What we know:
This protein is mostly helical. It has helices spanning 13-25, 29-40, 47-61, 69-81, 87-98, 100-115, 121-132, 136-151, 173-187, 212-217, and strands at 119-120, 155-159, 162-165, 168-169, 192-193, 206-207, 222-226, 229-233. It folds into three domains: 13-95, no CATH class; 100-165, Arc Repressor Mutant, subunit A, CATH 1.10.10; 168-233. It is built from ten helices and eight strands. α7 crosses α8.
Amino acid sequence: MSKAVVLARPIKPEWLDMTAELLAGTRDRDEIKESINEYVSHFIKSSINVRKTREILINTWVEVDSGNQEFRERALQVFKECAQTDRTAVHWAMMLMAFPVFRDLCNIVGKLSDMQEEVTLSQIQRRIYEIWGERNTLVHAIPKNIKTLKEFGALEQLKPGVYRAVRRTVKDKDAGCLLLYAVLKTGGKLYQSVSGIDRLKELFPFELNLGMDDLYKSDLFKIDRIGGEPVVSI
């Protein structure tokens, strides 16, 4: 499989906050990169790891694919307007769009946590190797992804290598719509039943509580009926 493993450093939500705030203030990429370098170097001493962390932050918010730039602008507006507690949801949506490995890992964790209260690193590794193949970069990347989920408050570590999913409610409806759109866009599904929105595995820590009125109000989605059941598509 040709997908690149690029989320190979643990990321803190506050670093993503800083990146989005920089982007809201300027579109000068060199200026943003310099500011990120200065900020992150207070927490990371290795210049190599500073660079790797910066590139993840940049790829999440700044250097997005051309087809995702309109979504990025919408996400940036929601980020500026939503409560601090819902900013994590906005970053999560952006990371789903940017990093296939992150999306796959979230899907795996979501499926495992639906079946059992505790999930283990070995279970996650085994399943992600089935998708990506057992390559050396994954040996280092998977623990970094898990640590990122811990930093986001999505996983609680019970003991070394053992975790439990932590649920939270997304109060901002626009942030919830961003999450739903990101899953539909990256998952390749033609549609999603409205009743199953809160069971999407990639969004395992989030309760969106999106009603039909919320979906109708958003111009991100189309609403149809299949077999008498309302479904949402993009």
